[in-house]
Specification:
disordered N terminus; 19 helices; mainly alpha; 425 residues
Length: 425
């Protein structure tokens, strides 16, 4: 069945994919839009050294903000991705969600208490959760299969990390120091209005992959019978936990436990964004060439050096930045296990649904529970405890990646050809 599904994807792509220039524009614009979304999502983490004393928050409450946003993000991703697949309408979903998360960022800046800020984060997660699953579905419909891994990596990782992890701390921390942390949220709210207009006026509603009577659509239950889909969901739980714990507690760890100035913390955190921005090209492109499985294994285990460096390296901040840079390379894996591998392993027409499910599973079980757990551990054993949690999570993700079945079209085709040639001889 799997070979037939690969042929279906190729037929759909050959018949409906737009020209090369439009493919680049779709990928770039969706990447920019998701980057602005992540700028909004991460703003609170980088502003937390200013927000926490102003609103008198405990570490447990700090973790609850990430948990709350992850919960509604996950529920939204599960619902919106499946609704989008059923209705075949994607562009309006992305535009409406973009406008909604801009409004939520503005409301976050108006918060005067823990409960008001918590409510704003809940609403922001609901607005943002469906954007990436639907964006991946648009890319599957518009981008040729041989460039799909790279396009998905750019769409999910380039903008989100250059803007959400790279530019955000460099820009927001000085703004907070100059005019207060509320000004940072107001600044984060504006750019999404521009990308929403660009998406509405310059992108078409993508064509749906063509049906083939010889290979009917795989159901969601059948999709989860495939080992890759289950393993990707587990890896999502582990690595989403790794990311949200780092975002929520690394700024506090660097300033309060390690004693770095807020300015130093901001560019150390910005290193993560630069790493993931480069990784958005490099990691998926490597996987297109040599396969998804070895790349998943290597970069998952590479993630151990980031928490270990934070805990034990006491030398130059520049060397620590290099450790952060290479350790954060695992961020390039996210579009692979959230969308690329599941869509290549089963029916590509389920891309938005599967992405929503895998991302939603990671956000609910990882993004919701892990920040709360990390905050509780930090209150009990200090701010180093979240970094130990990160270390365990990335090791477990690497072990899970060992069980993946290779799905990269080029590698699968090469192996099938080699098997066919061997059979003939």
């Amino acid at each position: 069945m799997r070979d037939g599904q690969m042929k279906d994807a190729g037929k759909a792509a050959a018949g409906t994919v737009a020209g090369g220039g439009y493919q680049v524009w779709v990928t770039a614009l969706l990447s920019l839009n998701f980057g602005i979304l992540f700028f909004d999502r991460n703003a609170l983490n980088f502003l937390m050294p200013f927000v926490q004393p102003d609103l008198h928050l405990s570490n447990t409450q700090v973790g609850m903000f990430s948990s709350a946003l992850s919960l509604t993000w996950a529920l939204s991703g599960l619902a919106v991705g499946r609704i989008s697949d059923r209705l075949g309408s994607r562009k309006p979903v992305v535009v409406v969600a973009t406008l909604a998360f801009c409004l939520c960022s503005f409301v976050s800046g108006m918060a005067s208490s823990f409960m008001m800020l918590l409510g704003a984060r809940l609403l922001m997660g609901a607005a943002e959760g469906g954007v990436m699953p639907v964006s991946h579905s648009m890319i599957v419909s518009e981008v040729a299969p041989e460039r799909r891994g790279l396009a998905m990596g750019v769409a999910q990782n380039l903008g989100s990390n250059l803007l959400g992890s790279g530019l955000a701390p460099i820009l927001l921390v000085p703004v907070a120091m100059a005019v207060g942390w509320r000004g940072g949220f107001y600044l984060a709210a504006a750019p999404g209005l521009i990308t929403a207009a660009l998406i509405w006026f310059t992108l078409r509603e993508p064509p749906a992959p063509a049906d083939d009577g010889d290979h009917p659509r795989v159901t969601l239950r059948e999709a989860f019978a495939h080992r890759n889909v289950v393993l990707c969901a587990v890896i999502s739980v582990l690595l989403v936990s790794y990311l949200v714990v780092c975002w929520a507690f690394m700024p506090l760890f660097l300033t309060k436990h390690r004693g770095f100035a807020p300015e130093t913390m901001s560019w150390l955190m910005a290193t993560l964004g630069i790493s993931a921005g480069i990784g958005s090209f490099v990691v998926p492109a490597i996987s297109d060439a040599i396969g998804r499985r070895p790349v998943m294994i290597f970069f998952a285990f590479l993630g151990v050096i980031l928490p270990l460096g934070g805990l034990y390296y006491n030398g130059s901040p520049w060397i620590l930045a290099a450790i952060f840079f290479f350790g954060w390379g695992l961020n390039g894996l996210f579009p692979m296990f959230m969308a690329t591998i599941p869509s290549e392993s089963v029916d590509p027409r389920l891309t938005a649904t599967l992405t929503g499910v895998v991302m939603g599973t990671g956000e609910v079980l990882g993004g919701v529970l892990s920040p709360f757990l990390a905050g509780t551990l930090a209150d009990g054993w200090g701010l180093s405890a979240p970094l130990w949690l990160m270390l365990v999570l990335t090791i477990l993700a690497g072990l899970c990646a060992l069980g993946l079945v290779e799905s990269a079209p080029r590698i699968v085709a090469r192996r099938s050809g080699a098997v066919g040639a061997a059979a003939l001889t």
